[in-house]
Amino acid sequence: MDRSLIEKIKSDQDFQKLVSERNRVMIVLTVAELIVYFGFILLVAFNKEFLASKLGDGVITIGIPIGIGVIVVSFILTGIYVYIANRDYDELSEKIKKKYIKEV
After folding, report:
1. 54, β-bridge pairs
2. Would you call 11 helix, strand, or coil by DSSP?
3. Of 26, 33, 7, 30, nearest to 88 (Cα)?
4. Considering 22, 34, 86, 95, which has the largest number of Cβ atoms within 10 A of its Cβ?
5. Looking at the predicted structure, is the pLDDT value of residue 104 above 60?
6. Long-range contacts: 85-90, Cβ < 8 Å, 24+?
7. Per-residue pLDDT tens digits for 26-85
8. What is the 3-class SS of 45-71, one letter each residue?
9. Cβ atoms of residues 39 and 30 within 8 Å
10. Which among 25, 41, 18 is positioned nearest to 80, based on CA atoms?
11. Domain residues of the chain, as ranges?
């Protein structure tokens, strides 16, 4: 790709909007995931007794559903990103491509 074309795309307002919006969403979702994950790890490190408590009369401890919850939250956060990307970023990416790359 031509260096001048790269510079034109980088300076385009739509491209800058795409990058800034994507970075904002990425940071928010990453921080949410880190809070959930490290919260669980800190719970394992400092409150083992709580995680080892049994749920009812069975053999399942509280730690199992919380651990499963960490995994489920990860899937949900990924789904949120995919939804936002499909709704907002794809349209903006196509607009940028059509503006600068004639073969697309």
Report:
1. 61
2. helix
3. 26
4. 22
5. no
6. 85/22, 88/21, 89/18, 89/21, 89/22
7. 999 999 999 999 999 999 999 999 999 999 888 999 999 999 999 999 999 999 999 999
8. HHCHHHHHCECCCCCCECHHHHHHHHH
9. no
10. 25
11. 13-100
> Global pTM?
0.81
Amino acid 13: pLDDT: 93
What DSSP state is assigned to residue 76? H
* Residue 61: strand, helix, or coil: strand
Q: Can you tell me whether residue 54 is helix, strand or coil?
A: strand
Query: Could you tell me the two tokens for 74?
Result: 């990860």
- Distance between CA 34 and CA 102 in Å, rounded? 41
Token couple for 97: 């491509």
